[in-house]
Write a structure and sequence with these properties.
about 130 residues, mainly alpha, 5 helices, membrane
């Protein structure tokens, strides 16, 4: 049971990445591109439609709404293109990730946040 759940989660992650690729490919029909872009942005966003701390409903968007929206977007994309996007997403998952690269991105975000706070913070002497 746990193995099936892990496989399902990997497939969802791969398909979200595939939809992100589809959203940027001009060969994808425009309606599918728009839906795929929205789904990928929502799935990759740290902000949820329904916050996870709300009992039962908190997981509704990830467990039900997101897979249903993904299914619709996948059906709007021609099968040969979707197979190509899934292959690209699977190849990207197989590549090793860089912790140093992730640390550099986090450092840049922290630096930008610090500069923004410094710029917006009222001057204590003023």
């Amino acid at each position: 049971m746990l193995r099936r759940l892990q496989d399902w989660a990997r497939a969802i992650r791969r398909d979200v990445h595939a939809l992100w690729i589809a959203a940027r490919d001009p060969r994808t029909p425009w309606a599918a591109r728009a839906l795929a872009l929205g789904i990928a942005a929502y799935a990759l966003s740290p902000i949820d439609l329904i916050p996870d701390f709300i009992p039962v409903l908190g997981l509704l968007d990830e467990a039900v709404l997101l897979p249903l929206a993904m299914l619709l977007a996948i059906r709007l994309i021609p099968a040969p293109l979707m197979a190509e996007y899934r292959a690209q997403a699977a190849a990207a998952q197989a590549r090793p990730s860089s912790r140093a690269g992730a640390a550099a991105i986090v450092a840049l975000w922290l630096l930008a946040a610090g500069l923004l706070l410094w710029w917006l913070w009222p001057d204590a002497a003023g």
